[in-house]
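Hey, can you fold this one?
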Amino acid sequence: MAQWISLEETAGLVPDRISLALGGAHRMAPLALIKEVIKRGIRDLHLITTPTGGFGAELLLAAGAVTKVETAQVSLGEFGIAPAFRQAAEKQGVPVKEGS
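Sure. Predicted structure:
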């Protein structure tokens, strides 16, 4: 029998310094889980976006939770490149491994 756990319990399974893969790009990112991860102050994440990152990745980067990114791109769709991603990559020295 399957057992469901709460969103808070799920976020509690995410420790600092883990590789975190996010799918969904622009429309299906798990934003409620991302909000809980940020709220818990989880840091030093190696963010892997599959295939691309969108608003969820941008939120984690803006919160300062990410120290490394692997992505094809982090974009806000028709709004263009995600500003927190750009800031992290260009000015804060967050390494980005591009894979398209």
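The mean pLDDT is 92. Let me know if you want another pass with a different chain boundary.
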